[in-house]
Amino acid sequence: MKKRHILLLLTILTSVLAAVLVSSGQEDIRDRLDPYYTPEKWSLPDSVIGRDFSVFTTVIDTDFEPAPDAKFG
């Protein structure tokens, strides 16, 4: 192999090793901070939003009107 190929191979191996070490390190830190952490999912119930998206149109200040045959929810 040429010297250039050896350097390329070493660079690739070093990059893979660094990626593995960083990802495992992040998992360890995450586990130490809060092992029971789960991301929260927020959603609004239909009773809050309304079938005609009145909250949506009020928040972004538009005059959007759904088609008469549109079904939401």
UniProtKB/TrEMBL annotation:
Signal peptide: 1-18
Organism from which the protein derives: Candidatus Cryptobacteroides intestinavium
UniProt keyword terms in alphabetical order: Signal
Keyword Signal: yes
Full protein name: Uncharacterized protein
